[in-house]
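so my prof wants the structure for this chain in the tokens format not the other one, which i didnt know existed until like an hour ago. anyway here's the sequence
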Amino acid sequence: MARLRYTGGMDISDVLARLHDFTDERDWAQFHTPRNLVLALVGEVGELAELVQWRTDEEVIALARTDDGRVALADELADVFTYLVGIADAVGIDLDEAVHAKITKNAVKYPPHLARGSNAKYTELGDVDTGPSAEVS
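here's what i got, hopefully its the right format
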């Protein structure tokens, strides 16, 4: 499967500023608690899942190539992303830092010489020196 090369240069701080403006204009910050945002995220993930449920991978790719399907998928992905950004903001987590740290942890947990071509969990790969920080998933 071809990989998309992201060239948009999205700035999460810009997204967050727009989300703050949107929320403030509607006086919705009172509802944007960490718990409520997580539950909203789950709902949006469900809506994304609904678009692909009961379809093969090929059918999902074909859906994404249609105008209506691409818009529907993009809308749900954007909803998921904005709630994720909102949750991180609400609990004071720098998403950029967190994502890079997690990729680094996963690189240790899944070394290429053991994980290449395998869908096994790191605990099933054999001699992986995960260290104490890798126990956190």
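also thought this was worth mentioning. The mean pLDDT is 90.
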